[in-house]
Protein: Riboflavin biosynthesis protein RibD
Amino acid sequence: MNIHEKYMLRCIQLGKKGIGTTAPNPMVGCVIVHKDQIIGEGFTSPYGGNHAEVNAIKSVKDNTLLSKATLYVSLEPCSHFGKTPPCTDLIIEHKIPEVYIGLQDPHDKVAGKGIEKLKASGCNVTIGILEKDCRAHHKRFLCFQEKKRPYVVLKWAETQDGFIAPDAKVRKKTPEPVWITNTYSKQLVHKWRSEEQAILVGTNTVLEDNPKLTVRNWEGKHPIRVVIDKDLKIPSDFHVLDTSVKTIVFTQITDPSNYLNGIDYELIDFSIPIGKQIFSALYKHSIISLLIEGGSKTLQTFIDEGLWDEARIFKGPTTFKNGISAPKISGRLLDTKPILSDSLSIFEND
Structure:
């Protein structure tokens, strides 16, 4: 690993600090170097705030060094006005002579324009430093820009005998979850919720578990709730409809008198595959990442349509003997690790 790659690796490390807060913006990291010493660092602020380059430049104590410094950034600096002014203008204003970029931004408002603008100002620009690592780091943003859909993480827990939920006959009358995994796995799931922009479940999961779909066992932002409710069967007093969190409901009911105030409703055609329809609507809502927590029918819908990127599957020590079978999936196994009595397997869609 050469020195440029080391500084880019630091950009990626910094960018990770923005996980769960920057969406729909990417989690960019930026480092400024003078005479082999880092004099400034920054990462993307929560959405609507400063970009990484702005925060890095602001962190430099002696601004006179910027005209002799090198800037490293994991993604091409923006060249357009959005929530904030163009980062390229700030780099040019401070006469930073050299810029190393991890990868080009595929966003149609950027897409090489930032690089061209920097070069036109006389800046020496190098692209493609640790490009593979930068692509992996920016996987959510890149999926949204290139595939026009959110980056999708499937998650479920299953028993040793392959069930995701017990038989309805043995469940309590009051809707509540039946836990398969331990408290450490549960906490990890709440961490994941804080990292993704939205979370999706189907009608049956809501009716059986009455979940809140919020972040409680971890510090972080609640994801946007996405619920599939074809016939609007979910009672208005259930947690997912309490309007405490932005909530999108997908339905076939066209009569707005059935809609609740404070909930966003999206109409789709349930007579044809629903996955792409849902993603098309979520794209309009600028949702770049989605955690799908079930149940089995909902998960299998997205698996069968090939609309997933990662699957995180827990296996607990319990057995149900009867119940709802876990989804069937094939993909490339990336990792398997124990979480005390549970095991976690992570797959990617190959």
Q: What stands out?
A: The first helix runs from residue 3 to 15. The two ends are 28 Å apart (CA to CA).
